[in-house]
TrEMBL record:
It comes from Kitasatospora xanthocidica. This is ASCH domain-containing protein. Residues 8-113 form the ASCH domain. InterPro entries: ASCH_domain, PUA-like_sf.
Length: 113
């Protein structure tokens, strides 16, 4: 039986970047529910009444945001031209230190029809 689609709420600026194909990595902390996301799964991101359907192409776990930013393409995570410091600040504004301690997931995405 194929996996059901999973709906994930997201901030509108990030949804717009995913829909444009610019943001191909969604960053989440390691909640048990997020750890169940796997390659081949369909994720539907939503903000208000706007939706964007994606396919998970990979999930990489890191101990923290610094380690993730050492490896992943910054432009695939955030807006074009954001510095590492700006990305780190943005990640930590969304996810406080106690959440970062759960581990960091870089969810690689591809748009689907």
């Amino acid at each position: 039986m194929p996996d059901q689609e999973r709906v994930i709420r997201i901030r509108r600026p990030s949804l717009d970047l995913i829909a444009a194909g610019t943001k191909t990595i969604e960053v989440r902390v390691g909640y048990p529910s997020m750890r169940r996301i796997h390659p081949g799964q369909t994720l539907v991101f939503e903000s208000g009444d706007t939706h964007c359907r994606t396919l998970v192409t990979g999930v990489t776990e890191y101990p923290d945001f610094d380690a993730m930013l050492d490896t992943e393409d910054p432009e695939a995570i955030g807006s074009e031209g954001m510095s590492r410091t700006e990305l780190l600040t943005a990640c930590r504004e969304i996810h406080p230190p106690e959440k970062e301690q759960l581990g960091v997931l870089a969810i690689h995405l591809r748009l689907t029809p």
